Amino acid sequence: MPVIHVEMWPGRTHDQKSELAKAITDAVVRIAKTSAEHTIVIFDDVDKANWAQGGVLASDM
């Protein structure tokens, strides 16, 4: 049972997440030879104040 975690900044619409979940699921089913019913995609919207890159908070970029 593949579980895929997608972390990204907030702002994507329901439709965008739905389309992304379908595309990720399709790729995992094709490549990992599993079924869509056993593939889980979890979206975590991470606030920019909780995300740093290169030692700098994304909210300060």
What class, by secondary structure content? alpha+beta
β content, as a range? Answer: 25-35%
Number of H- or I-type helical stretches: 1
Radius of gyration: 14 Å
Overall geometric form: elongated
Count of strand segments: 4
Cα-to-Cα separation, first versus last residue = 37 Å
Strand order of the largest sheet: 1-2
CATH class: Alpha Beta
Based on the coordinates given, report the CATH architecture. Answer: 2-Layer Sandwich
CATH topology group: Macrophage Migration Inhibitory Factor
The biggest sheet amounts to: 2 strands, parallel
**What is the averaged pLDDT score?**
97
- The name of the CATH superfamily reads Macrophage Migration Inhibitory Factor
What portion of residues is helical?
A: 25-40%
Instruction: Return the string of H and E elements.
Output: EHEEE
Low-confidence sequence ranges: none
Number of domains: 1
Question: What does it look like?
Answer:
31% of the residues lie in helices and 26% in strands. With 61 residues, the protein is of the alpha+beta class. It has one domain: Macrophage Migration Inhibitory Factor, CATH 3.30.429. Strands 1-2 form a two-stranded parallel sheet. β1, α1 and β2 form a beta-alpha-beta unit. It is elongated and about 40 Å long.
